[in-house]
Design goal:
The chain has 425 residues and is α+β, with helices and mostly antiparallel strands. The chain has 13 helices and 19 strands. It folds into 3 domains: 102 residues, no CATH class; 111 residues, no CATH class; 171 residues, Orthogonal Bundle (Phosphatidylinositol 3-kinase Catalytic Subunit, Chain A, Domain 5), CATH 1.10.1070. The protein has a 6-stranded antiparallel β-sheet. The chain has a 4-stranded antiparallel β-sheet with strand order 3-2-1-5. The mean pLDDT is 90.
C-alpha cells in the first residue's frame, strides 16, 4: 500500500477528502483539489487546516496516530500487518474509526459488502473472558479501528420488544456502541466506569449513554453508546433491515493540539488546562459554555478520583453538516484511586505537582481562570458540584442496583472516604 484515501460521509455518498501517501517508512497527508474546491470543505482537524500544500509526517502523524489502536491491540495489529505505521494500520482497519472518516486503499468506497452479523450470547461471553484475542478478531472482521489501550469492540445494538440484539458490523456498516471488557488487573472496572458515568449524569453533566451487559457469573461488559453516531429520520438507510446510523466527525484533544498519543498525560510543566482552553476557544461554537462544562468535568474527575483524565478522554464533535462543533459528552470516567497500582497524578491536573492529593483551595480558582472562566463563577461551580456530589453518587448506586448490580458498596465507600479529604470551599 502506497496511498491511503481519506473519505467522509457526505450527502448520502462518500466524498474524497485527501490522501495519505507512504514513502520510505514515513508519510504525508494532502487535501484533494476537488475537496478544497468544494464550498462544504472543512478541516478534518484543528491541527490540519485547509491548504493546498501537503502536511509533513510531523504535522499529520498526531491526528492519524490518534485513530489507531494502542497497547496490546496495536502490538497485535502491527504483527498482523508487519508494520507499526499508523497509516498502514488504518489501511487494514479502514472502514470504521473514531469520528466521521473512512479510509480505503483504492480511490472509492463500496458498500456492497456492508452487513450486520448477528452475535450470540456465547460471542459476548468470549469477548469478556478472552478480551484480547476476541476484540482483535472482531476488529479485523469489522475493519474497525478504536483508539485506546483497553480491549473493546465496536458493535451494533438493535432494541426490540423482547430485548435487544447485538451485531458485528462488517465492511462499511457503522457501529452504535463501544463495548468494553473488564480487566482482571482492575477488579470491577466496568461497574466502576458505569457508576462514575451515572454519578456525573446525576450531577447534571452531559455524559455518554451506557448500559451494563450481565453474562452469567462474572463481571459484566460495559456498552457505551457512540455520540459520534446518530440516527436521522430521513433519509434513512438500511442494511439487512436495520437502520444505519450516520457518522459524526470528532477529534480528541491530543489530535487537536498536534500531540502524539504518548503525550496524552500531562508532563511536568505541561499546563494542559491552558491547552484545553485554547482548543475549546478555537473549535467550539459555544466557547464559554464549553469552557465552563470542561471545568466542571475536571472538578468532577477530582471529586470522583479519576486520574486517567488524559487528553484523549476529551474531544470535540461536529454536527452532521460540519458547520458547528461543541465539546463531546463525557466518557471514559473511572475512579482510579481505588487501584493502588495506578499513579495518583492526574492526566489533566489542577495543581503544579499534578497529584490529586495535593490540590489546594487556591488551585480551584486558579484552574478556573486558566480555562477562561471567571474566578468567582469557577468557585461557585465547584461548590455546587461538591454539594451535589454525595446525593448523585447514591442515586447512581441505586440505578445500578435496580439494573441488578448491587455489589458496588466498596466503590461507594472508597469514593466517599476520599471525598472527606477533598477541598471544601
Amino acid at each position: 500500500m502506497n496511498t491511503l484515501y481519506v473519505f467522509r460521509e457526505w450527502e448520502d455518498d462518500y466524498q474524497l477528502i485527501g490522501t495519505v501517501v507512504l514513502s520510505q517508512g514515513t508519510f504525508h497527508f494532502a487535501y484533494a483539489e476537488s475537496y478544497l474546491a468544494s464550498t462544504s470543505a472543512r478541516p478534518i482537524s484543528l491541527s490540519l487546516p485547509l491548504q493546498e500544500t501537503p502536511f509533513s509526517y510531523a504535522e499529520a502523524a498526531p491526528f492519524f496516530s490518534g485513530l489507531a489502536p494502542e497497547g496490546d491491540m496495536k502490538r497485535l495489529l502491527a504483527e498482523s500487518v508487519h508494520s507499526d505505521s499508523c497509516a498502514v494500520m488504518l489501511g487494514r482497519l479502514n472502514h470504521e474509526s473514531i469520528g466521521g472518516l473512512l479510509f480505503s486503499t483504492v480511490p472509492s468506497v463500496e458498500d456492497e459488502h456492508a452487513a450486520y452479523l448477528p452475535l450470540e450470547k456465547s460471542d459476548l461471553l468470549r469477548l469478556r473472558d478472552k478480551p484480547r484475542e476476541t476484540a482483535f478478531e472482531m476488529s479485523m472482521t469489522s475493519r474497525l479501528s478504536l483508539s485506546g489501550a483497553q480491549s473493546k469492540a465496536g458493535l451494533y445494538y438493535a432494541d426490540g420488544p423482547s430485548g435487544g440484539s447485538w451485531y458485528l458490523p462488517e465492511s462499511t456498516a457503522p457501529s452504535t456502541h463501544i463495548v468494553k471488557t473488564p480487566q482482571s488487573i482492575f477488579p470491577d472496572q466496568t461497574l466502576n466506569e458505569a457508576l462514575c458515568l451515572e454519578t456525573a449524569r446525576q450531577c447534571g453533566l452531559d455524559t455518554a449513554d451506557w448500559m451494563l451487559l450481565p453474562l452469567d457469573t462474572g463481571e459484566p461488559l460495559l456498552a457505551i453508546r457512540r455520540f459520534d453516531r446518530i440516527f436521522i429520520e430521513s433519509p434513512e438507510k438500511h442494511i439487512g433491515g436495520l437502520p444505519v446510523p450516520k457518522r459524526l466527525h470528532q477529534e480528541d484533544f491530543c489530535q487537536a493540539s498536534m500531540l502524539m498519543p504518548d503525550m496524552k498525560y500531562e508532563p511536568t510543566g505541561g499546563n494542559y488546562v491552558n491547552r484545553c482552553g485554547s482548543i475549546i476557544a478555537r473549535a467550539s461554537s459555544n466557547p464559554f459554555g464549553d469552557r465552563a462544562f470542561f471545568l466542571q468535568a475536571l472538578y468532577f474527575d477530582y471529586l470522583i478520583g479519576n486520574c486517567d483524565n488524559h487528553l484523549k478522554n476529551h474531544a470535540v464533535c461536529w454536527n452532521e453538516s460540519w458547520d458547528a462543533c461543541e465539546l463531546s459528552p463525557l466518557y471514559d470516567i473511572t475512579c482510579t484511586t481505588i487501584y493502588p497500582n495506578i499513579d495518583r497524578e492526574m492526566g489533566v491536573s489542577l495543581c503544579a505537582s499534578r497529584r490529586i492529593d495535593e490540590v489546594a483551595p487556591e488551585d480551584i480558582a486558579r484552574t478556573s481562570q486558566a480555562i477562561g472562566v471567571p474566578r468567582k463563577l469557577g468557585i461557585d461551580l465547584y461548590r455546587e458540584l461538591y454539594a451535589t456530589f454525595p446525593k448523585a453518587l447514591d442515586s447512581a448506586a441505586n440505578r445500578l442496583a435496580h439494573a441488578g448490580f448491587e455489589h458496588v458498596e466498596h466503590l461507594i465507600e472508597h469514593i466517599k472516604g476520599e471525598l472527606d479529604n477533598k477541598v471544601q470551599l
